[in-house]
Specification:
alpha+beta, BirA Bifunctional Protein, domain 2, eight-stranded mixed beta sheet, binds zinc ion
Amino acid sequence: MQADNANPPDRKAPEERNKMTDLERLRHSCAHVMATAILRLWPDAQFASGPAVENGFYYDVELTHRITPEDFPAIEAEMKKETKANHPFERSVVTREQAMKDAQAGRLGALAERPSPSRFKLGNLADIPEGEPITYYKSGDFIDLCAGPHVMRTGNIGAFRLTSVASAYYKGDERNPQLQRIYGTAFKNKTELEAYFNMLEEAKRRDHRKIGAEMGLYVIDTEYVGPGLPLWLPKGGAIVETLEDLAKETEFAAGYVRVKTPHIAREKMYLTSGHIPLYEESMFPPIVLQERAPSQQEPGAAAPAERYYLKAMNCPHHHRIFAAEPRSYRDLPLRLAEYGCCYRYEQSGELFGLMRVRSLNMNDSHIYCTEEQFAQEFNGVNAMYLKYFKIFGIEKYVMRFSTHDPAKLGQKFVDEPALWKKTEGMVRRVLQESGINYIEVPNEAAFYGPKIDVQVWSVIGREFTLATNQVDFAVPKRFGLVYRDRDNTEKTPLCIHRAPLGTHERFIGFLIEHYAGNFPLWLAPEQVRVLTVGDEEPLVAYAKGIVDELRASRVRAEGDYTNDKINGKIQYAEQARVHTMLVVGGRDLQAGAVSVRVHGKGSLGARPRADVIADLLASVRERRA
Ligand SMILES: [Zn+2]
Ligand SMILES: [Zn+2]
């Protein structure tokens, strides 16, 4: 059993519960059904909390019997009886006294009264604030203390499966008893359930950690470099460089200018930006620097120690670049771009391949503009996303537009009611007018302004958060950033934070799954390998000439000129996921031709050398899929 105490679920406020999707209701309802089944098998089971979570649900249970996957069929069989019986979920409101009494009688999270009290339910009851209704949900014999909501009947749970067991402390607190956390998932019907597990199987085959190792893209050298700090190997480095070329070319055409900034800054920077204290727990602890005294004989002359921080984001550095020169309205919009390397402190248990890391290279830019320029700039950012989606064959995406909650101004959100309204209005208008696919999510904005999370789906249907855009109307002011307007007054610019290609780490992790490691020609780490049939000199010279010609045009081409059997050489190149193999034999040499093979597609026949090279160059240049 692995410990699973990450993110103990907070008690959901009633309004958040009402936002539960149909699928979340169904899955949470299935947790009740699973508890019912467990109680049929082990009547002394004590239940704690059973929420819907991403991709399924769990229920925490205390039980002397250690539940293992071998028990799943028996539990699922009991669950089946409950869904077949099609019990309604009956809600009732009770007084706190009644709930206390029932919990003492062991009746909550149970099928009947029991000798020992429902002790975790007593604890949960104590967490329900005065004034909030206390409700039960009853399905068949099972009564639970629960705020809901649920589906109408147990029969609405079309298909379910138990998936794993972990351990977790009650309420995520290690001073509390350790419970068994039983995970499962549920869907409307069997077809959806099966599609989900097929997708998971396919995702496992396409696991970026597995393919990344097979292809030699990156390593994480925990011992010498540290956890969460990937090293890009030459083949991964080739993908990194190619993505940067794409970004630089696209951004240059869109009027961006490039900057370069150091990886650390003084504490003052982050106190001004507000990252300290707001974001401090995601930052590495400070580097305390004692400037050395000019002369070792005078230790007393040493300056006081200074605190430096590794940057967790690039914005503050860019803000200081904005501030480095006087700015006028003629300088705006100013689009500062950088593939900036940031460092974030993630708990070691949260680190995951390239997806959760501690060093990340971000496709970052900060656009400083006037209010009048905002719509056009924001539209330009969206157009860039759509361009990238097309290049990478990303067909499904959604922009989650997170807005503020006026009730939480001054706590969760910076207290600028008018600016919030105005900025959110501007963003909403652009999203509506551009016809981009978006949804609006209240109460999830960043502290400084509305944000847009870009979710994309890989070709096998798995969802990834690619990037976050933010519209910032507060931090430029904190840094005192101003431009001189037409009327000669000083004004604060708006700042758009955007990173369409996210970070190299996360985006390449996504691309590995998306392409199953079979990158298109323009992106493939090894684009072309020229293979000779035999190792005779004129043939090898011919092959080397092809490699040299391709490399002169920056095509990542290699040669295999050994005397090994050609089938073995082809197999070797296929395993390495080389995109295009050019096989040359005596006849090709005579005819000035090459025989083309494409990874996963097989032989495409012999063609004149010049035509093949021209095609390869065009495919790379146009970034063909
Ligand atoms: Zn419930
Ligand atoms: Zn930023």
